[in-house]
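Subject line: Sequence and fold of a protein, written as structure tokens
Body of memo: The sequence and its backbone structure tokens, given next.
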Amino acid sequence: MGNCNVAGPNEVVVVSGGCVGNSKRIVIGGCVFSWWFCTDVQRLSLNIMTLVPRCAEVETQMGVPVTVTAVAQVMVMAEDHMSGDVTPGDRDAFMHKALEQFVGKSRQEIEDTILSTLEGHLRAILGTMTVEQIYQDRESFASMVRETASPDLAKMGLEILSFTIKDVVDQVEYLDSIGKTQTAVVTRNADIGMAEAQRDSGIEASNCDRAKQAAKYEADTNI
């Protein structure tokens, strides 16, 4: 007596024990029979997981604390969607890595593991950048995190589909202070420029008056 276990297109069913012996039967988008009492049936979702890594008050290269929130989409590498030259054996290897790490775990446990990895790399990259770099080039910042985190997630049989920076918060208003300082400098330079222009104009007017007076004096002397 047993059951017919159906795996959806975005799901892996793993049957072990019983007549399967020491090996495991892995089925995606199909069905597999399992015996009552003597076989174990476990499932792993292949759906995309949308995660929100967040690092609070991490010091940047210049010691300014910032809080960064990102959005990542991750999924099990059931097959390699990025390359056409990956052999079935390689795809099976990715799947087995994911099964070793996550089969039997809840979705929350899987997401917590991935978040810990992403946040660790996010924190490390933050420490190498200035606040200005983080604000001005978020795309490069996100690419750096993705590139450094991808190998670790691949070891778990996972792939990062996308990674974007959602929000950057500067608690000490560092950039605001820089903006105010730059505005003050621009205003001061404008005031100095205006004062110098007025001074030059006054000097020019004074020179013209002296020239007129000299010309008049010379004309009167000649008479």
Q: What stands out?
A: The first helix runs from residue 88 to 102. The CA atoms of residues 101 and 168 lie 32 Å apart.
